[in-house]
Amino acid sequence: VEDRAIIRRVCVDKPCIRQGMGRDLVQAFCNAAAKTGLRAVEAYACLPAEKQDAIRGFLQACGFQEEESAQLCAIPLGSIASSRLGNGALSQFTVPLAEAPSSEWRIFLGQLARRGLSKPFSMNGLLRQESMVWMEGGRITGCILLASDGESLEVRWLYAENQKAVMALLAAAYRAASARFSPETTVYAAAAIPSAAEIMKR
Predict the structure, then answer these.
(1) Which of 50, 73, 18 is closest to 199 using CA atoms?
(2) I need a labelling partner for 183 at 20 to 30 A (CA). Which of 49, 99, 104, 117 fits?
(3) Of 52 and 156, which is predicted with more confidence?
């Protein structure tokens, strides 16, 4: 993101835990980021509450310092589903990613690149039925991408051209996720800019 790199998740197979592999992976990533001229590396502890202390300890051991101002939002899915956002009217412009034309998706990503905007760093592990795109006039102009590790949900990427589309995408994605995940499922959203964090909080 601009002059920073963001670590969203570090995974090591269970037999390899506590052998230093996770720390080596993070160090290698940070070294590679520094060589490309990036100014900083941020990491978000997107795990269930009972694992937060462990991941914080791991990141601190890797040299990260915790910041109170980090733009990370976490909320139970049930709280969203019962809120004004979850109960809002769904827009006719929101379509599951699984149903969106692949050609239009490629055009959309190309338009982001031409505008100098960041685009999704990975499509692996996405919930394609719960992830939504905003289609208007046959064109994709926004999307929300959700992923899951089996225990929680993560808003991996969110983009739209106006706040109305942002709110509609969030509403559609959370409504779809509520049909598959329990109300206790924690939803994490890491925002790169304060205005996006404010939208997430609302």
Answers:
(1) 73
(2) 99
(3) 156
Contact 110, 129 (CB under 8 A): no
Question: Does the pTM exceed 0.70?
Answer: no
CA distance linking residue 169 with residue 140, whole number of Å: 12
Distances (CA, A) of 9 to 50, 146, 149, 167, 200: 16, 14, 10, 26, 20
Contact (CB, 8 A) for 23 and 16: no
Whats the size of the chain, residue-wise?
202
Cβ contacts of 143 within 8 Å, gap of 6 or more: 97, 108, 131, 132, 133, 134, 157, 158, 159, 160, 169
Task: Write down the number of H helices and E strands in the chain.
Answer: 7, 8
Q: The tokens 């004004």 sit on which residue?
A: 84
Range from 1-5, 70-74, 87-91, 149-153 carrying the lowest mean pLDDT: 87-91
Torsional sign, CA 132, 162, 39, 60: negative
